[in-house]
Write a structure and sequence with these properties.
By secondary structure, this protein is α/β, with parallel strands linked by helices. The chain is built from 8 helices and 5 strands, in the order βαβααβααβααβα. Helix 4 runs antiparallel to helix 5. Bound molecules: adenosine-5'-triphosphate (ATP) and magnesium ion (MG). The site of adenosine-5'-triphosphate has 15 residues, from helix 1, helix 6 and helix 8.
Amino acid sequence: MFITFEGPDGSGKTTQLNGLMPVLEKQGLDVIRTREPGGTEIGDQIRSVIMDMKNKSMTPRAEILLFCASRAQLVEELIRPSLAAGKIILCDRYADSTMAYQGYGHGLDREALGQLLHFATGGLKPDLTLLFDIPSEAGLRRRLSNHEEWNRMDDYALQFHERVRNGYLEMAAAEPDRYVIINADRSKEEIHKEVVLTVMRKLNRS
Ligand SMILES: Nc1ncnc2c1ncn2[C@@H]1O[C@H](COP(=O)(O)OP(=O)(O)OP(=O)(O)O)[C@@H](O)[C@H]1O
Ligand SMILES: [Mg+2]
């Protein structure tokens, strides 16, 4: 079972992944967590290039290819072998993030992007994608209030985040069997309950 956590910046993906992990482990399930970009030694090196404030001049195309390189490594090195071993993989962002940010956010050719993502992942799609949906301003404010480091990826206009959000919602509508939309504009505890319910339901069905 391959489960991805998607949604705009500050929507609570990492918080909820952290909360879900011990619940699944307590059930005796074999769970692995990973994140994008990164998740492998090579991927983490690529991640630091993507996040580096020095790299403000990085073009959207260069950025996409770096994300895809990191993802290709993650799929081959970690995700496919773990799935073959019967594990549950929780992934903090995956291919849909590229489509949302670079496709819908930056307005790049979504059909070409889809082909590139297919190439990078070898066509591997998640069994379940949790979309944490939150109004863009609320999400951005959350991250700042916590004194987290403002990274290059946050340094875009609010309008950009709105396009990203709407892109996610469009993708979710196009693949209703894979996506579950979670209203992320609630307390952490309320969201946690829904996440656990959603994942347990999916696990029991498969
Ligand atoms: N339901 C919530 N209500 C209020 N604050 C929250 C909630 N969920 C998470 N937060 C806080 O909002 C901030 C962002 O949460 P988190 O890092 O989990 O988001 P994220 O989706 O992983 O963001 P990013 O895309 O930047 O990695 C954190 O400070 C977190 O503690
Ligand atoms: Mg996060």
